[in-house]
Amino acid sequence: MVESNSDRLDAVFRALADPTRRAMVRNLARQPRSVGELAEPFEISLAAASKHIKVLEGAGLVQRDVQGRTHVCRLDARPLHAGMEWMRHYEQFWNQRLGALEDLLRAEDRDDATRKPPRKPAAKPARSNRSKR
């Protein structure tokens, strides 16, 4: 089965949605690690760590090599590129919108600076509360 780009992107974001998996990716960015080393910082079993790693593998972010009885994982950051491209599109979108808002606010500030302040009404003479006798 051939996955579409959308399916691959969904898998990457789904894999990175979990804080444990993000931490594993961060650890793997430093160097390859065994499943045990990836599980160590968390209070999870090797089976739970393996399930997280399978999600990362499914997204193409992790490659697992078996060396005897030890499973060594290494990061493959290439799938992150599609996620970065997707986010870059929206970064441009928001930069354009925020730039337009900034221009609008600056124009309003210029308009406010050129307007004369409204005139204050003349002060009314104070009335005395005393009644005339």
Topology:
Elements: H1 5-16, H2 19-30, E1 33-34, H3 35-39, H4 46-58, E2 62-67, E3 70-75, H5 78-114
Antiparallel strand pairs: 1-3, 2-3
Can you characterise this structure?
The chain has a three-stranded antiparallel beta sheet. It is elongated and about 100 Å long. It contains five helices and three strands, in the order ααβααββα. With 133 residues, the protein is mainly alpha-helical. 59% of the residues lie in helices and 11% in strands.
The largest pleated sheet is described as: 3 strands, antiparallel
Please report the number of helical segments. 5
Shape: elongated
Tally of strands: 3
* Helix content percent band: 55-70%
Q: SSE order in H/E notation? A: HHEHHEEH
Poorly predicted tracts of residues: none
Summary tags:
133 residues; mainly alpha; 5 helices; elongated
Tell me briefly what this model is.
This protein is mostly helical. The chain has 5 helices and 3 strands.
